Amino acid sequence: RARGTKDVVEAVKYARKHGLAFAVKGGGHTPANLGLADGGMTLDLSLMRGVAVDPVARTAVVDGGSLLGDIDRETALYNLCVPLGHAPVTGMGLALGGGVGIAARMLGPTCDHIVGATVVAADGQVHTLSASGGSGEGAHAGDSKGARAGEGKGAGEGGVGDQELLWGLRGAGAALGVVTKLVFRLEDISGNVGGYFVWPDDPSHATFKAVARWMCDVGYDLPGFGCNLSWSNQPKEAGGPVLMSQVAFLGSPATVESRMAALQPLRDLKPVIDNVRPGGYLDAQFAMMNFLKAAPPHFEVWATGNMPRASLTPAALDALTAALIDGHPPPHVCPGSAVVFDLWGKKLLGSSSPVALAAGRAELSWLALTGWTDPAHAPAAAAYSLAVRSAVGAAAHG
């Protein structure tokens, strides 16, 4: 378990010397299982969770083991943010694969906000990178003293190699080295409205369909607005199943009243929890914690994709609801499951990052996360995931 860049250097050199398979665990949130090396060395960065905010420069220096919640808490103190993912327990390594949450359609993906990094390469060389192309002093290298952009194997004259490395980290950086620090450019959220709504699911899923329709027909075109809609299969004795929508408006403080009024159609659906308020962006970012705390440790399989809004016709929405919700295995078979729809589009699709390019012109993203605890239930989870892919794929293409 590393405590700083020096420990990381020693671990990388040891693994290289002994020919060990090598993996890096940051937050431990990796559907591709990149954070474990069976029979090899797993480098755990979870002790490295410092976040230093410079409110004047509007930057944050984030240690490699930091969680998204760590970043949100520290930046929100200054009415600033990095657009991050939905779950505060996800690691900052999310940025290396893109990074999409409710603010992405207004601000772009997380990776577009990387302006510096400290990276330990496979040969143990430390690279301190800066978007300015200088020595990287603005990256707050800390315990990588003496490392300069342009030094080390593969670095070209004038730091060209390190500039290419920094470019690569913005969305495709999981295999480019061990990132011990990232420097993020921050965004002003002083005029935000945010929070979340919770509704009980009903047998006909009328509320789920109404919120989904509102997202597509109204929410998509609201200026500065981002939201999602999730369904979780909590058992009845735990108050489930439930629906939740994380929402955020970003913009001028002068527009707060009109933005609160724009959400009245969601309030008309009689949520059992409504904590959406001026300045509630942090509440929106932490909304999933109750679900995450309730879910037991489990295995997971994911199905995910995207679609244009026009494809979500009433008939398609009925078919998707049947596949995603009615077709889901019961809670005693697959606890800890969720279905999430996200609004995309806008600035997210204007990004040149891999996550945006892969989305094409999609305006909606969907995710079906299926969890199970008993290995005997793995076939049911896998069958559901395949059925969802088939159903959503057909709807997405009309």
Average pLDDT works out at 85
Which class best fits the helix and strand makeup? alpha+beta
Low-confidence parts, pLDDT < 50 over ≥5 residues? 135-160
Per CATH, which architecture of the largest domain?
Answer: 3-Layer(aba) Sandwich
- CATH class of the largest domain equals Alpha Beta
Inertia-based shape: globular
How far apart are the termini? 49 Å
Put simply, the count of helices is 12
Give a concise summary.
Residues 140-151 have a biased composition (Basic and acidic residues). This protein has twelve helices and 17 strands. With 398 residues, the protein is an alpha+beta fold.
How would you sum up this structure, described in words?
GO terms for molecular function: FAD binding; oxidoreductase activity. Pfam families: FAD_binding_4 (PF01565). This protein is of the alpha+beta class and 398 residues long. The chain contains twelve helices and 17 strands. Strands 10, 11, 12, 13, 14, 15, 16 and 17 form an eight-stranded antiparallel sheet that branches. Strand 3 (51-54) and strand 4 (59-63) form a beta hairpin. The radius of gyration is 22 Å and the shape is globular. The chain starts with a helix and ends with a helix.
Question: What layout of secondary structure does this protein have?
Answer:
Elements: H1 5-17, E1 22-25, E2 41-44, E3 51-54, E4 59-63, H2 68-76, E5 80-81, H3 104-107, E6 114-120, E7 126-130, H4 160-172, E8 178-185, E9 187-188, E10 193-200, H5 206-217, E11 225-232, E12 242-249, H6 256-262, H7 264-267, E13 273-274, E14 277-278, H8 281-285, H9 289-294, E15 299-307, H10 314-326, E16 338-343, H11 354-359, E17 364-372, H12 378-396
Parallel strand pairs: 1-2
Antiparallel strand pairs: 3-4, 4-8, 5-9, 6-7, 6-8, 10-12, 10-13, 10-14, 11-12, 11-16, 15-17, 16-17
Helix pairs in contact: 5-10, 10-12
